[in-house]
Design a protein that fits this description.
The structure is a single chain. It is built from eight helices and no strands. By secondary structure, it is an all-alpha fold. The protein has one domain: Four Helix Bundle (Hemerythrin (Met), subunit A), CATH 1.20.120. Helix 1 (3-22) crosses helix 6 and helix 3 packs antiparallel against helix 7 (160-181). The structure holds fe (ii) ion (FE2) (2 copies).
Amino acid sequence: MDALTFLRSDHQSVLGMLEVLDGAPTGDGAHRSGLDTTVTNLVIAESQHEAIEEQLFWPAVRAALDEGDELADHAIAQEQDGKKLLQQLENGTPGENGYAAALAAFVGAAREHIRYEQEVVWPRFKEAVSAEELEKLGGLLEKAKKAAPTRPHPHTPSGPGAQMTLGAAASIVDHVRDAATGRAHDNPPDPPRP
Ligand SMILES: [Fe+2]
Ligand SMILES: [Fe+2]
């Protein structure tokens, strides 16, 4: 599958979750609403998605485009802000002080980030690379996602080297913890592919 089709199906799945979370209850009801599970699904999906973009997609954008560094730096800054909010959600409990505000901030920021990638970055990237390159990158993304961390790790540096080494170590710990707690079972990480 080509890289942009692969990333788009991740985005579709995240946008679907954001839609559900848009009308999420706040206060006391939030705790009883199953919001926890939806947010955990979102944390897993987003953590894996941004990690593989940082390992593979942004380095490819930097290499392919003259303005690649600028585009990648802007997107990675958005991703870092998003990870901090996700970490707040991961540490917090629905209904708790500040939780609803962090969730609302994440929903808005994530939509803007997806819009930036799809409308600003992708058209330029697609112009600059061949169909074969897109296909090859898609294969690498797909493979990397299986080993990607399931938690946000906002303090792990976002460069490709750090993501490959520190990110990989964090990912192993995440997967062990997921297996031990049953989190992986309750929250299957992958959306259906087209
Ligand atoms: Fe991203
Ligand atoms: Fe993305």
